[in-house]
Amino acid sequence: MNLNKVLIAGRLTADPDLRTTPSGTNVVSFSVATNRVWRDKNGERREETEFHNVVAWGRQAEIVNQFLKKGSLILVEGRLQTRSWEGKDGQTRKTTEIVAERIQLGPKTGSTAPTAKSEGVDEAKKEEMPVIDLDSENINPEDLPF
After folding, report:
1. Digit-coded pLDDT (tens) for 25-56
2. Residue 67 has what DSSP assignment?
3. How much of the chain exceeds pLDDT 70, in percent?
4. 68 with 61: CB under 8 angstroms?
């Protein structure tokens, strides 16, 4: 059995680029930045960012172009595809990209995408992540459904 499945969640690095094929099908290209954070062997915090090229077709292309912009949060489920073409200099070029099969838009915001360090964001409007305190006497870990 073979499987070609990709799932990423990140932020757009630039506004989406919508085009139309000669047959009239909409296609949008955009790049998504993802990061991972870990501690090295010395216990120091490290961070690494990856950039992913994504392509969406048809109605999804229209939705991405209409509702997302640089900094928007997106969840993409799709497949990897490598394609090649000949450049203007005659050299063969290759690229690997994610072809979106499903997308989920991040939370809708005002004029800019929110970040943890956004200035001017009303602290009262920030949604707090619920915390489960397993050390509390009221919660028994065996009672949790997961």
Report:
1. 999 999 999 999 989 999 999 999 999 999 99
2. H
3. 74
4. no
Domain ranges of the chain: 6-140
CATH class as words, domain 6-140: mainly beta
Rounded to a whole number, what is the distance in angstroms from the first to the last CA of the chain?
Answer: 30
Q: What distance in Å separates the CA atoms of residue 32 and residue 34, rounded to the nearest whole number?
A: 7
Length reported for the chain: 146
Model pLDDT, residue 118: 46
**10, 82 Cβ separation under 8 angstroms:** no
Residue 60 has pLDDT above 70, yes or no: yes
In this prediction the pTM is 0.69
Alpha-carbon gap, residue 144 to 146, rounded angstroms: 6
CA 51 to CA 35: how far, in whole Å?
9
